Protein: NADP-dependent oxidoreductase
Amino acid sequence: NREWHLLSRPVGWPKPEDFALVETPVPTPGEGQVLVRNKYLSVDPYMRGRMSEAKSYVAPFELGKVMQGGAVGEVIESRAEGISAGDHVLHFFGWREYAAVDARHAVKVDPEAAPLSTYLGVLGMTGLTAYAGLLRTASFKEGDTVFVSGAAGAVGSQVGQIAKLKGASRVIGSAGSDEKVKLLVDEYGFDAAFNYKNGPVAEQLRAAAPDGIDVYFDNVGGDHLEAAIGSLNEGGRIAICGMISVYNNTQPAPGPKNLARLIQTRGRIEGFLVGDHYDLQPQFVQEVGPWVASGALKYRETVVEGIENNLEAFLGVLRGDNVGKMVVKL
Ligand code: NDP
Structure:
């Protein structure tokens, strides 16, 4: 069994020396546990937060120990009721090849119903984040003009498409390359998109949304958030999902200067955590599953092969190497 350990807490961008791929014996499942051979590992931006010591909504990764993350795999031995060898499960013991998992922390998934990797992405945590954040936190309603940043990523690409499928009047996305921008318009059906590296976000947003925006779904923070507040219509809502532009900062980033505009617009800005919204999971899969199956909602995945490339895949997400959900295939 090979597994990734955190050796030291990264300062700024994580460096290879902060991690080690360690060889350990395949674990033996205890009573009530199943032994899982992982097939797909998730790499997600929030993992950067767990590499730091700062107090957050989840405990930091422990130094010298294996890291954690979403994973799907096949049960090869079961000592638990209700799960048998040959079943596939979703669980939280990624960054390793084999895991002994308490059955109560494993959710059975059906590889016939959808490709295994989608339980980490379009039908999994990132999909639910898009669904809950847009419909619940941002109180999306038909006719809204929606702006989403990180729009070619796992969460963002789904926010834009769900908004369209639910009757948004206009959807605008931003992303970090011209290829991604083309994908947003040509494949995902965004009405407009721009490359934030090509010029000031505020100017590009004003050009793409001349009548302003009603919803901003923030994956990025910084000047994207500032620009969105500047373009917010009366009664506009901002859902704060993530702020990836600051995750590797060593100095606090300068904040938006136009927060007072929320007073004039009676605008609402609200943070949310997907973990509070798992009651929506059945409704989410019931509504979005058929869209995925019919192709009405499209998704991309960026698949990196091999446990030895798990760290590189994670760093790739922070750099923007991915289109859609980044997963590691074992
Ligand atoms: P993505 O698939 O969107 O991958 C991250 C993307 O961020 C990269 O592909 C890159 O794309 C973009 N990016 C990196 N640096 C910057 C930067 N400086 N400015 C703008 N964009 C940048 O990841 P996810 O869909 O998994 O996550 C998206 C956001 O949602 C993250 O902020 C994450 O932390 C957050 N999140 C929050 C949850 C919650 O419960 N609140 C749950 C899940 C995710 P590009 O080429 O376009 O720059």
Notes: Residues 44-46, 126, 129, 150, 152-156, 175-177, 180, 219-220, 241-242, 244-245, 272-274, 317-318, 320, 322 surround NDP (CB under 6 Å). The radius of gyration is 20 Å. The CA atoms of residues 34 and 78 lie 4 Å apart.
